[in-house]
Amino acid sequence: MINISHAWEEPLKHLVSAVPTLPGASNDMLKKANAVKDRNHVLQEGMKTILSRSQIEVEENAYPTWSGLADLQSSDEDTHLFAFYSLVRCLKRDTHKIDTYLKVLRCRVVFNNECF
After folding, report:
1. Gap between the Cα atoms of 8 and 98, Å rounded
2. How far is CA 36 from CA 9, 66, 72, 84, 93, in A?
3. Could you tell me the keywords of this UniProt record (predicted)?
4. Which residue, 90, 68, 80, is CA-closest to 19?
5. The pTM is what?
């Protein structure tokens, strides 16, 4: 899960820079995008702490790369908007995966697998 979170570092930087280019973008949208980027970093640090205590080894640089930068920076509005939408949709999906993983981990560690 830390690899998924780490894979979002670059895309989130570009997401933050792309928000102001959206039609009707507000300061609140930019604040929210920055908050998501910051929370991702905090989440990574927390997962590193948990993993260091659990003796699980994590492969460095074993995370997927993002290939959507060219589309996000496209001058074609449809391409740009679809890339933005895809980025947010994937972020939502990956966030859900991480949330589920952390809930299962909490169940196993805190409740000794007795949380069902």
Report:
1. 12
2. 10, 17, 18, 15, 14
3. Hormone, Metal-binding, Secreted, Zinc
4. 80
5. 0.81
CA-wise closest residue to 99 among 57, 27, 56, 39 = 39
Q: Where are the domains of the chain?
A: 2-110
> Token pair of 66, please?
């993002």
pLDDT in tens, 20-63: 999 999 999 999 999 999 999 999 888 888 777 776 666 666 67
For the domain spanning 2-110, the CATH number is 1.20.1250.10
Indicate whether 102 pLDDT > 70. yes
Q: Say whether 99 counts as a known binding-site residue.
A: yes
For residues 87 and 11, is the Cβ–Cβ distance under 8 A?
A: yes
